[in-house]
Amino acid sequence: MSYQNVDQEIAHLEHVFGLISAQDRIPLSYWRNRLRMFDQSSLMPTQRARVARLEATLRAIETSAAQTAHAEPVLRTAGTRS
């Protein structure tokens, strides 16, 4: 993949990662696999930094999803208003 194609792919993922959530139809594992396709040894330093930010963003989404899945529902006393 050429330098320009890598930049375009990273830019696309940066855009998409601003929109995705754990509840989307496309699973987070798909996006994890898309990040893994980058050969770190062939990336320029700025590209490696951008991919690292994307990985951190995806980890944050995954962590948030895991915490939400394990959170206990809030119980309210009957007859109270929220």
Description:
The longest helix has 26 residues, at 45-70. The chain has one domain (3-68). The model has no long low-confidence stretch (mean pLDDT 87). With 82 residues, the chain is mostly helical. It has 3 helices and no strands.
Brief account:
This protein is an all-alpha fold. It has helices spanning 3-17, 28-36, 45-70.
Q: Helix and strand layout, with pairings?
A:
Layout: H1 3-17, H2 28-36, H3 45-70
- What is the straight-line distance between the termini? 54 Å
Order of helices and strands: HHH
Q: How many H/I helical runs?
A: 3
The number of distinct structural domains comes to 1
Tell me how many strands there are: 0
Q: What spatial form do the alpha-carbon principal axes imply?
A: elongated
The unreliable regions are none
Mean pLDDT across every amino acid position: 87
Q: In terms of structural class, how would the helical and strand content be classed? A: mainly alpha
Strand content: under 5%
Main beta-sheet strand count, sense and barrel state: none
C-alpha-based Rg, rounded? 18 Å
The residue fraction in helices comes out at 55-70%
Keywords:
82 residues, mainly alpha
